[in-house]
Amino acid sequence: MTARPVLVVEDEPDAQEMLASLLTFINIDCDRASDGNDALTLIENNHYNIAVIDIGLPNMDGLELIRAIREQNTDLRCVAISAFHSSRLKQDALKAGFDVYLPKPIAQEDFLTMIKEWL
Each residue of 24-43: pLDDT tens digit? Predict the structure, then answer.
């Protein structure tokens, strides 16, 4: 299986589609996962440069997921996204191992610029 450079981990279908469409707009393909367990399987079996991860995932939230990722992979760039805005959540996300925290709705131009720079 050939991996895409970006993994989108988002449980809300509309948000997942919006992120994938943004990436497609700048000619970047992505794989998608709807929960942390699926994301870990994809990460274990593929190579990604970037993972965009919603904090509010079912079964395994984004903070648990990033901790599991960091135990295995310190090179993967990880972006936390969340509809719940608080400085505490941002601090928790960065402390857990995310490289960047972005509140929803995501500033599309800033997001795409960051992704292009990282790739």
Answer: 999 999 999 999 999 999 99
What angle (nearest 5°) sits at the alpha carbon of residue 119, between those of residues 92 and 60?
A: 35
Beta bridge partners of 102: 81
Going by C-alpha positions, the residue among 85, 69, 72, 84 that lies closest to residue 37 is: 69
3-class SS string, the chain: CCCCCEEEECCCHHHHHHHHHHHHHCCCCEEEECCHHHHHHHHHHCCCCEEEEECCCCCCCHHHHHHHHHHHCCCCEEEEEECCCCHHHHHHHHHHCCCEEEECCCCHHHHHHHHHHHC
Query: Could you tell me which of 90, 102, 100, 9 has the C-alpha nearest to residue 48?
Result: 9
pLDDT digits (tens, 9 = 90+) for 106-117: 999 999 999 999
Q: Which residues pair with 101 in a beta bridge?
A: 80
Decide: 43 and 7 in contact? Cβ < 8 Å: yes
